[in-house]
Amino acid sequence: MWEPGDGVLARVAFPRIRTLDSSQTPRREPASMPRALAAVDLSVIREALAGMAGDTSETSTVPAPADRREASDLERRLQQRDAELAAARARLARMEAETAEMRARLDRADRLDARATFAGSAVE
Length: 124
What we know:
Layout: E1 2-3, E2 8-9, H1 42-61, H2 65-123
Antiparallel strand pairs: 1-2
Protein backbone atom coordinates (compact mmCIF):
# COMPACT_ATOMS: atom_id res chain seq x y z
CA MET A 1 0.00 0.00 0.00
CA TRP A 2 1.41 3.42 -0.88
CA GLU A 3 0.21 6.61 0.71
CA PRO A 4 2.63 9.37 -0.33
CA GLY A 5 1.05 12.06 1.87
CA ASP A 6 1.85 10.10 5.05
CA GLY A 7 5.04 8.51 3.73
CA VAL A 8 3.66 4.95 3.92
CA LEU A 9 4.89 2.25 1.58
CA ALA A 10 4.03 -1.27 2.72
CA ARG A 11 3.00 -4.62 1.26
CA VAL A 12 -0.50 -5.63 2.23
CA ALA A 13 -2.28 -8.94 1.54
CA PHE A 14 -5.90 -8.60 0.50
CA PRO A 15 -8.34 -11.42 1.26
CA ARG A 16 -9.33 -13.69 -1.61
CA ILE A 17 -12.52 -12.72 -3.40
CA ARG A 18 -15.34 -15.04 -2.35
CA THR A 19 -17.83 -14.03 -5.05
CA LEU A 20 -17.43 -14.39 -8.82
CA ASP A 21 -13.98 -13.14 -9.76
CA SER A 22 -14.21 -12.27 -13.44
CA SER A 23 -10.57 -11.13 -13.44
CA GLN A 24 -9.31 -14.57 -12.45
CA THR A 25 -7.31 -16.54 -15.01
CA PRO A 26 -9.24 -19.62 -16.12
CA ARG A 27 -7.89 -22.95 -14.88
CA ARG A 28 -6.88 -25.62 -17.34
CA GLU A 29 -9.09 -28.61 -16.71
CA PRO A 30 -9.09 -31.82 -18.67
CA ALA A 31 -11.70 -31.93 -21.41
CA SER A 32 -14.83 -33.74 -20.32
CA MET A 33 -15.63 -36.88 -22.19
CA PRO A 34 -19.04 -37.05 -23.87
CA ARG A 35 -21.52 -39.27 -22.11
CA ALA A 36 -22.88 -42.31 -23.86
CA LEU A 37 -26.47 -41.85 -24.97
CA ALA A 38 -29.08 -44.34 -23.92
CA ALA A 39 -30.27 -46.82 -26.49
CA VAL A 40 -33.63 -45.79 -27.94
CA ASP A 41 -35.99 -48.01 -29.90
CA LEU A 42 -37.08 -45.69 -32.73
CA SER A 43 -39.62 -48.16 -34.09
CA VAL A 44 -41.75 -47.78 -30.93
CA ILE A 45 -41.66 -43.99 -31.26
CA ARG A 46 -42.55 -44.14 -34.96
CA GLU A 47 -45.52 -46.42 -34.24
CA ALA A 48 -46.78 -44.11 -31.49
CA LEU A 49 -46.50 -41.07 -33.75
CA ALA A 50 -48.21 -42.87 -36.63
CA GLY A 51 -51.09 -43.85 -34.32
CA MET A 52 -51.48 -40.27 -33.14
CA ALA A 53 -51.43 -38.89 -36.69
CA GLY A 54 -54.12 -41.35 -37.74
CA ASP A 55 -56.36 -40.38 -34.84
CA THR A 56 -56.17 -36.63 -35.46
CA SER A 57 -56.59 -36.82 -39.23
CA GLU A 58 -59.92 -38.65 -38.93
CA THR A 59 -61.41 -36.14 -36.53
CA SER A 60 -60.08 -33.08 -38.30
CA THR A 61 -61.43 -33.97 -41.76
CA VAL A 62 -65.07 -34.32 -40.69
CA PRO A 63 -66.21 -31.42 -38.50
CA ALA A 64 -68.77 -32.10 -35.82
CA PRO A 65 -72.30 -30.70 -36.32
CA ALA A 66 -71.71 -28.07 -33.61
CA ASP A 67 -68.55 -26.95 -35.42
CA ARG A 68 -70.46 -26.67 -38.70
CA ARG A 69 -73.19 -24.57 -37.06
CA GLU A 70 -70.60 -22.32 -35.46
CA ALA A 71 -68.74 -21.97 -38.77
CA SER A 72 -71.93 -21.05 -40.64
CA ASP A 73 -72.84 -18.56 -37.89
CA LEU A 74 -69.39 -16.99 -38.11
CA GLU A 75 -69.64 -16.84 -41.90
CA ARG A 76 -73.04 -15.10 -41.67
CA ARG A 77 -71.68 -12.58 -39.16
CA LEU A 78 -68.69 -11.94 -41.42
CA GLN A 79 -70.99 -11.23 -44.38
CA GLN A 80 -73.01 -8.80 -42.22
CA ARG A 81 -69.84 -6.97 -41.17
CA ASP A 82 -68.69 -6.79 -44.79
CA ALA A 83 -72.03 -5.22 -45.77
CA GLU A 84 -71.77 -2.73 -42.87
CA LEU A 85 -68.23 -1.85 -43.93
CA ALA A 86 -69.30 -1.28 -47.54
CA ALA A 87 -72.16 0.99 -46.38
CA ALA A 88 -69.79 2.95 -44.13
CA ARG A 89 -67.33 3.41 -46.99
CA ALA A 90 -70.11 4.67 -49.26
CA ARG A 91 -71.26 7.10 -46.56
CA LEU A 92 -67.69 8.31 -46.12
CA ALA A 93 -67.30 8.89 -49.86
CA ARG A 94 -70.54 10.96 -49.91
CA MET A 95 -69.37 13.01 -46.93
CA GLU A 96 -65.99 13.66 -48.54
CA ALA A 97 -67.71 14.85 -51.73
CA GLU A 98 -69.97 17.16 -49.71
CA THR A 99 -66.95 18.51 -47.82
CA ALA A 100 -65.13 19.25 -51.07
CA GLU A 101 -68.21 21.04 -52.42
CA MET A 102 -68.56 23.12 -49.23
CA ARG A 103 -64.88 24.10 -49.33
CA ALA A 104 -65.26 25.20 -52.96
CA ARG A 105 -68.27 27.35 -52.01
CA LEU A 106 -66.37 28.90 -49.10
CA ASP A 107 -63.41 29.69 -51.37
CA ARG A 108 -65.78 31.41 -53.84
CA ALA A 109 -67.41 33.35 -51.02
CA ASP A 110 -63.98 34.45 -49.72
CA ARG A 111 -62.95 35.62 -53.20
CA LEU A 112 -66.21 37.55 -53.62
CA ASP A 113 -65.76 39.12 -50.18
CA ALA A 114 -62.19 40.11 -51.02
CA ARG A 115 -63.36 41.71 -54.31
CA ALA A 116 -66.16 43.58 -52.54
CA THR A 117 -63.76 44.83 -49.86
CA PHE A 118 -61.24 45.91 -52.51
CA ALA A 119 -63.95 47.59 -54.60
CA GLY A 120 -65.36 49.37 -51.50
CA SER A 121 -61.95 50.73 -50.51
CA ALA A 122 -61.27 51.93 -54.07
CA VAL A 123 -64.52 53.94 -54.14
CA GLU A 124 -63.82 55.81 -50.91
